[in-house]
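anyone seen this seq b4? input:
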Amino acid sequence: MRLPLREVERLVAEATGEERAVLLAALSSRLSTSNPTRAHDLAAEALEIARRHGAESTEGEALAALALHAFVVGSYDRCQELASQAREIFLRLADDSGVAQCRMIVGHMALERGAWDTALGCYLPALAAFDRAGDRIRSGNAINNVGLVHWRMGNLDAALEYFERAQAVFEEHGDERTRGNALNNLGLVEADRVHHREAIAFFERAKPLLERADDRNFLANVVANMADSYEALDELTVAGELNEEALALREAISHRRGICGSCVALARLALRAGDFARAGALAGRALELADELSLEKHRGDAWKLIADAAEAGGDPAVALAALRSHLKAREAVYSEERARRVAEMQARFDTTQARADVARWRSTAEENVRARQRAEDASREQSTAMAMIGHEIKNPLGALILAGDALIDSRIGTLTERQRWYVDILRSSSAVLESLVGDVLDYARLEAGCLQLHPRPFSLLSSLSDAITVSSAAARDRGIELSLDAGVDIAARVVGDPMRLRQVLLNLVGNAVKFTETGTVTLRAARTAGATGALGIRIRVEDTGIGIGPDELGRIFQPFAQANGSIAERFGGTGLGLAISKRLVEAMGGTIGVESQPGKGTVFTVDLVFLLPPRDEG
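predicted toks r here
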């Protein structure tokens, strides 16, 4: 059991010389999240005393404390520099625990940046070193951080196992802060399992512990997590009050990264409440902080909220400009992570191959069963790796498209006819290839079982209208009449995954436009029978295109299938769009069917049932 903070404060006040420096560094690490400013001042004083007395070990501890402070405030380059200096000292002194401390700090940065394998490569050796040294508190922290990596990766069972191990350590050896943190992490797992009431119960147990520990940073995180769960339960008033509380806590300790996140959450709630002016103001504040701290994800989220608020408030020009900035920020996130993902993909491929080799070496009946399971795991990992490769191909393709657009926009008056022709080829070919890679990427995710639905309330009519809007240019170019036929009874808010519904609609409408040379394409939607609290919808995409023969209809939803070879040569495509659409519709609990006559046209029918938000019931 480590000393209470008050006791450490008393010892610091009484100590002098090198002993004071040791205590200052330890106190700084304890205060790194609850009071970052004071933590920095304590570590700086410890460093000055240690250097004056030539105490190398204490100098390393002080440098590590300063590195931890730099991480907390988001100064990652400074953090890396200080951690490297500390590590050199600890290596020179053969101090395994000191080296492990530096590994933990580097692991924190890797975790924050999404470099999962790098983070595990830091936390696991650190855990082994702390275990050898018998340092139970630091072992518990390392176990907890391994759990965080698995949680961020979506491996909830593994995350839960590590979080429960950490909780057991902290219950025996920890203090209120560490126990509160462990309970918070268990709540995060329940929230990801959509067990929000259970998650809130963990958060409520963690909150008083962190209040007594006076750790306002971790306390703010718990309050914000509780707000997210209440928002998921559509208890928006409570969610708003909790987010305001989290914002106040973060403002009190000048935690700018946390303030940015709270502003994003409050802007999202204001937008849902119809307070577009407040949503825009909060998103604007979040954007300023994201720009200062180079937080690309928060920057993209803020621009998207500004775009949504402007659109809802009747300012389409601002909405369009903000949406463009959102897309640019999202592209910056992809570019920043590209090198890391390539390295981690190679590691995943190596792991996959190793597991496949192990499977081939097993011979007994019992081992063959186990080997078959490992082979299935390897297949899933390979599909996951293929999905990641798809991302790495898609990101530079997006950059090529943006570069082509920028070249046209900035040089339209000076390009020669042949140069414009070359740029048009660049743009159109990149767009086609991006679409093909997108299909392969989605199919790989589905095969790997890692494509998840994210249900939330949304406007069904808006999703239908979006599909028409996006496909209208292609229809206009082909001289096809594209229309939406949906009654007023469709104008309802439902609970589902709007992004995946939009993907299905765009696949079906896009195919109808592509395979129709003259005539019409119509997207129809009508209510069907639904249980209480639910809305049944039948969606039909009708075209007057080339049609599909009876021999081909039976395999139209199979992957890589098109009606025949001449169709593939004439119209292109991977033959994955309908296979993906079928999988997505079935994942949403619906069905999809097709009727067609060659030379007359095709009708695709999708039947879905959506839950109604609580306020729409009855």
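The chain has 24 helices and seven strands. The radius of gyration is 28 Å. kinda curious what u guys think
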